[in-house]
């Protein structure tokens, strides 16, 4: 049997630092669990632009199509702010998502007990929170045509188009229903059917998939603005949320912050199964490249580490090992270890990015 293959695209800003900690964990799995990954590395984002004049080289794109899973750090930085839109670092990420057809973006928002005080909300609102946002990732206003800045008489007009086909809604709805079945069996779908036709269609299609294929899953619908309000009021009412690309972008940042730190949250972007049965997959932290703290040992590697845990679970069918890694993270937090982003009023032991990675590896060792 061939080893599972991983393409690492560490990217910009804190990406390489947090990825270095994931490398320690990948190595640990090779040394201690006999799971050797074939790891290759390449560039994406600003660093790829610096070298190749494009945020994602065609060769890198081809490699991404060829591996079992891609693990990405973060892209972007102020240095690239004035670049033409077509070569901005973010375009590299968007191209990966689009060409790999990664339509289902899983963004869990989980509140670790040790960090419940960290949220800007009251502790009882967030303690024990465990929700999953499924964001449609390859369509909607991010990709719809026409798009651009056009001349209209004496002024310019900026245009983007929200567009969803029935089959695009169906497939992401199925992903969300399947996840709901494995969790609390509850799905809430969010759109703006009160103002957008794409929202009307979204609601209709999700309801039909629910009625015909998943009658056992409790399905509800909410307008996305009300959903944002309910997420801040009482987030524990939700289990799985399914929503479109743009609403999902906003709602997942909101949900992430409920848990106290963006530095904690992983994500998985999944597409259709490949010939070997594994889904096309890309894993990345929800946080960005944080150029303001890059290179200072301040970054929290946990979101990236937990993204690798999601890879173990969703790409490599290693749920028990994913549980082990998630538990190791919980333990170091319970022990009071805190990277700079987690230094709240309650104190704790201030550790660097690399010390946090080492502590997680030590907790993994202790788990054997
Ligand atoms: C995200 C990010 C991206 C998005 C950017 C970096 C293109 O905000 O993954 O949520 O808007 O999808
Ligand atoms: Mg975002």
What does this structure look like?
By secondary structure, the protein is of the alpha/beta class. The chain folds into two domains: 1-102 and 265-368, Isopropylmalate Dehydrogenase, CATH 3.40.718; 130-258, Isopropylmalate Dehydrogenase (3-Layer(aba) Sandwich). The protein is 41% helix and 23% strand. The protein has twelve helices and 14 strands. The strands form three sheets. A ten-stranded mixed beta sheet has the order 2-1-3-12-11-4-5-10-8-9, sandwiched between helices. It has a two-stranded antiparallel sheet with strand order 6-7. Strands 13-14 form a two-stranded parallel ribbon. Helix 1 (15-33) packs across helix 10 (302-314), helix 1 runs parallel beside helix 12 (353-366) and helix 10 (302-314) packs antiparallel against helix 11 (319-334). It binds 3-isopropylmalic acid and magnesium ion (MG). The site of magnesium ion has 2 residues, from helix 9.
Instruction: Based on the coordinates given, report the CATH architecture of the largest domain.
Output: 3-Layer(aba) Sandwich
The neighbouring-strand order within the major sheet is 2-1-3-12-11-4-5-10-8-9
Rg? 20 Å
Bound molecules: 3-isopropylmalic acid, magnesium ion
Spell out the helices and strands N to C. EHEHHEHEHEEEHEHEHEHEEHHEEH
Tally of separate helices: 12
In percent, how helical is the residue content?
40-55%
Within the CATH hierarchy, at the fold level, what is the topology of the largest domain?
Isopropylmalate Dehydrogenase
Name the overall outline: globular
Question: Which oligomerization state do the chains in this entry correspond to?
Answer: single chain
Beta-strand portion reads 15-25%
**How many structurally independent domains?**
2
The major pleated sheet works out as: 10 strands, mixed
What structural class should be given to the helix and strand makeup?
alpha/beta
Low-confidence regions: none
What is the first-to-last residue Cα distance?
25 Å
Number of strands: 14
CATH superfamily of the largest domain: Isopropylmalate Dehydrogenase
> How would you state the average pLDDT, rounded?
95
CATH classification class of the largest domain: Alpha Beta
């Amino acid at each position: 049997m061939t080893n599972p293959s991983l393409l690492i695209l560490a990217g910009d800003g804190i990406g390489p630092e947090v990825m270095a900690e994931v490398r320690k964990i990948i190595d640990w799995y090779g040394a201690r669990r006999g799971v050797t990954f074939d790891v290759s590395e390449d560039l994406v984002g600003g660093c790829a632009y610096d070298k190749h004049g494009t945020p994602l080289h065609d060769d890198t794109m081809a490699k991404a199509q060829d591996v079992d899973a891609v693990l990405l750090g973060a892209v972007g930085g102020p240095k690239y702010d004035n670049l033409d839109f077509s070569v901005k670092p973010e375009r590299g990420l968007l191209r990966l998502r689009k060409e790999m057809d990664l339509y289902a973006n899983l963004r869990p928002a989980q509140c670790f007990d040790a960090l419940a005080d960290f949220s800007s909300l009251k502790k009882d609102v967030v303690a024990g929170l465990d929700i999953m946002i499924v964001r449609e990732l390859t369509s909607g206003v991010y990709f719809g045509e026409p798009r651009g800045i056009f001349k209209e008489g004496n002024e310019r007009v900026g245009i983007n188009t929200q567009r969803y086909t029935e089959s695009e809604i169906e497939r992401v709805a199925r992903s969300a229903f399947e996840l709901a079945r494995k969790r609390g069996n509850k799905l809430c779908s969010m759109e703006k059917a009160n103002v957008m036709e794409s929202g009307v269609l979204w609601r209709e299609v999700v309801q039909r998939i629910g009625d015909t294929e998943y009658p056992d899953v409790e399905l509800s619908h909410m307008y996305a603005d009300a959903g944002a309000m309910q997420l801040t009021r009482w987030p524990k009412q939700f289990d799985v949320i399914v929503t479109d690309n743009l609403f999902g972008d906003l709602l997942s940042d909101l949900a992430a912050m409920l848990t106290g730190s963006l530095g904690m949250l992983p994500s998985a972007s999944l597409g259709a199964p490949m010939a070997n049965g594994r889904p096309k997959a890309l894993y990345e932290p929800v946080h960005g490249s944080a150029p303001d703290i890059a290179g200072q040992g301040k970054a929290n590697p946990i979101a990236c580490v937990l993204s690798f845990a999601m890879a173990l679970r969703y790409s490599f069918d290693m749920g028990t090992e994913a549980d082990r890694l998630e538990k190791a993270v919980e333990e170091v937090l319970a022990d009071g270890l805190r990277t700079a982003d987690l230094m709240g009023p309650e104190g704790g032991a201030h550790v660097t990015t690399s010390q946090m990675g080492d502590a997680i590896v030590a907790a993994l060792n202790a788990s054997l």
